Amino acid sequence: MYKFNEFKQRELLDNALADKVADLLTKALKSNGKASLAVSGGSTPKGFFHALSKKKLAWHAITITLADERWVDIDSADSNTKLVHEHLLQNEAVKGKFFHLKQGALLTDETLADLNLAADQQLLPLDVLILGMGEDGHTASLFPCSDEIAQCLAPDSPTLLKVTPKTAPHQRISFSFAALVKSKHTFLHITGFSKKQVLATAVAGQEPTEMPIRAFLQTPDVNTQVYWAE
Description:
This protein is of the alpha/beta class and about 230 residues long. The protein has one domain (about 1-230): 3-Layer(aba) Sandwich (Rossmann fold). It has eight helices and ten strands. Strand 2 (about 35-40), helix 2 and strand 3 form a beta-alpha-beta unit.
């Protein structure tokens, strides 16, 4: 299930989402002494990252990671890790911890096993998850075109998976739906009329392997908060 929240301007969305996430992280810190946040890459969240980075939180007790990452060098323009360091881990948030999904030159089975163990111990369940969505309805690196899509959406899937999309560059590492669905608070951050149309198509259909975002929008016990602005 989902709730659609519409904003007249992207700046208003960014500030509202930052306020909400900061409040949820504060509550998690009070309850557990620590908090975890998974974000998504791309250009859409930059304004949100900037707004959130200015929040006066106990950032030293907050672990930030990515819902997925391209297996590229950290200095690559395609690196979401670079994006997060340049736009979120700034200002007050410079003290935050970062859990690297991309570790090492090659995404070997051994590396994947080590990352799965660390993520299970240090991150899950996530306190807050911020998803994005592609024009094909993919979210994180749960691509409908990939050979791994059935495993990505399987209820017994490992926490982290190796994914090779056929319609996008680079090998990826991604949290599975089984891991992401355990998040205590889930948001879908999208902008633009075309993404609103993609959302409508996703809501109208049923098969999650065709549009993986459907798994987050239509699962009854998942409350996905959609934040949208033109």
